[in-house]
Amino acid sequence: MAIRNTALRGHLFRRLPRWLMLLILAHVLGLVSSFDAMMSTRTAPGAVAWIVSLNAVPYVAVPAYWVFGRSRFQGYVLSRRDEDSVLSATLADKLAELQARRYSGQDNDRHVAGIEQLAKLPVLAGNKVELLIDGEDAYGSIFAGIAAAEKYVLVQSYIIKSDAVGQQLQDALVSKAKEGVRVYLLYDEIGSHALSTSYLDELRLAGVNVHHFHSNRGRGNRFQLNFRNHRKIVVVDGQSGWLGGFNMGEEYLHGHPQLGPWRDTHLVVEGPAALALQLVFLEDWHWATEDILDLPWTPSIHRGHATPVLVLPSGPADRFETASLMIQQAIHSAHERIWISSPYFVPDEGVQSMLKLAALNGVDVRILIPERPDNALTFWAAYAFLGPMLDAGVKVYRYQEGFLHGKAFLVDDSMAAVGTVNLDNRSFRLNFEVTALVLDKPFAATVADMFVDDFARSRQMQPEDIRQLTFGHRARSRAAYLFAPLL
Hints:
The protein folds into 3 domains: about 1-70; about 85-110 and about 125-305, 2-Layer Sandwich (Endonuclease, Chain A), CATH 3.30.870; about 320-485, Endonuclease Chain A (Endonuclease, Chain A). It is α/β, with parallel strands linked by helices. The chain has helices at about 1-15, 20-40, 45-55, 60-70, 85-100, 105-120, 135-145, 165-180, 195-205, 250-255, 270-290, 320-335, 350-360, 375-380, 385-390, 425-430, 440-455, 465, 470-480; strands at about 125-135, 150-155, 180-185, 210, 230, 235, 240-245, 260-265, 265-270, 305-315, 335-340, 345, 365-370, 395-400, 405, 410, 415-420, 425, 430-440, 460.
């Protein structure tokens, strides 16, 4: 009798219309996927949103979730976090060398004690740091540094284009490789999707070691397109390092055809902090290729300069939400001012609350964002939460003279940071990023001057700007804000 009932059920299932069978399968996959979302999504609102959509419209939400929804990068093991990893064993002595260069000063505990724990790297003493504003300064410094390389060059970029600047990079790397210098180039395959095969072939033919980041490597990342390596790093001979907002493309030098001049910020450091940047590159290269680069490792103290620098890598493989916590710690430690520049400004609720509380406590809180954005969703989403921030006393400036792309912040008169982190969910939870925090009053003064100049080229928003919005504008803003987890 049981056999007959089983056969009958199988017969009835086979007689179901194909569309109904596919619908049932979609809902089963939605149920399974919603359990994964419940267990792995980092924020409760994000988990609830995915669970509802996965069960309500699984035929749309299931593929979207497995491509865009997950916030954990599976398999990427940081040597500084896993003491049993092969990379950790290889770099143990080199990490000890960095620890020996640790800076200890009275401002250290106040500003970055917790951030050191996140970075698993110390604040390093004995550096020379220079702020690079806009394309001519940044590219001039980078290409001069590459030309001076004697042993090796490490280059990592989110976007590389086959235009004039990309060609200049290619020529510089080919020239050094032909001189016998070891050259390594790592790029993000999504950010650099338009990079031609011939461009890469010419580099390889000249002896340059080229690889993409391989963001979908690993069983847990097979369908992912959402994780990006957004880092921009150049290291020459372990002595000098560059990082900041500049990718490798002509628009970063001469401006965007629609958005106008490109306003960006970069940084060059000479000294032990360059090796901390090298460590970040080595970890990414190891993930992409499974190779461990054997490079010279001799921290150099820059004579005549003792600037303390902390290099903070962050990303979806971290145990904590490193970038978000870094920003919150910076806001918390501010007594007089916290000035932040970010082209994409859709911070999570924790950062929003910290900014409002700091302003209510009398801290001079200023946010610098573009007037003309290159991302419509980010532009509209900001209007959904700017009103309460303006009411709390947060000052929001919109840059007028082109597109603002710099990522920097300033705390009081003693700490400044330059890096790749935007104040949005993508940088906080989905992208691999890197930031240099500099504990130095002269450097902070230079960054303050940069901000003052940018504020002079901006318009300050007023609470009335939000109150006067039309209903249609408000509706678009709220709808765009729903996509904040993907922005």
